[in-house]
């Protein structure tokens, strides 16, 4: 059964990001991680209230590769990232 994630009072200045993966045939890859390039690309799935004027859920962002706190739920990696480590937002 798939678990639903609900963040409770996400710490000020933090976002929850799902790394953006791409499919190549039947092989899933993360281009930025495979190539060793930084930053990493991801999609915001939750934000702290103080960042609501700057970022939105579903924004695609680039963040520092070595900054996030990683959690794994049902085999899916998610990252808690400080807003200061988000380098750019795709528009």
Plain-language structure description:
With 91 residues, this protein is mostly beta strands. It has one domain (14-89): Roll (10 Kd Chaperonin, Protein Cpn10, Chain O). It is 5% helix and 44% strand. The protein contains 1 helix and 8 strands. A 6-stranded antiparallel β-sheet has the order 6-7-1-4-5-8, with no helix packed on it. Strands 2-3 form a two-stranded antiparallel ribbon. A hairpin with a 2-residue loop joins strand 2 (22-24) and strand 3. The longest helix is centred in the middle third of the chain and has 5 residues, at 31-35. It is globular, with a radius of gyration of 13 Å.
Fold blueprint:
Elements: E1 14-19, E2 22-24, E3 27-29, H1 31-35, E4 40-47, E5 60-63, E6 69-73, E7 76-82, E8 86-89
Antiparallel strand pairs: 1-4, 1-7, 2-3, 4-5, 5-8, 6-7
Look at the structure and name the CATH superfamily. Answer: GroES chaperonin
Question: What class, by secondary structure content?
Answer: mainly beta
CATH architectural arrangement: Roll
Mean pLDDT: 79
Q: Biggest sheet, in brief? A: 6 strands, antiparallel
Per CATH, the class reads Mainly Beta
| CATH topology category name | 10 Kd Chaperonin, Protein Cpn10, Chain O
């Amino acid at each position: 059964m798939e678990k639903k994630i609900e963040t409770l009072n996400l710490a000020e200045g933090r976002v929850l990001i799902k790394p953006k993966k791409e499919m190549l045939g039947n092989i899933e890859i993360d281009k930025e991680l495979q190539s060793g390039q930084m930053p990493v690309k991801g999609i915001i799935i939750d934000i702290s209230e103080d960042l609501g004027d700057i970022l939105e859920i579903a924004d695609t962002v680039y963040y520092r590769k070595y900054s996030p706190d990683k959690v794994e739920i049902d085999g899916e990696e998610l990252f808690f990232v400080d807003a200061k480590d988000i380098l750019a937002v795709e528009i």
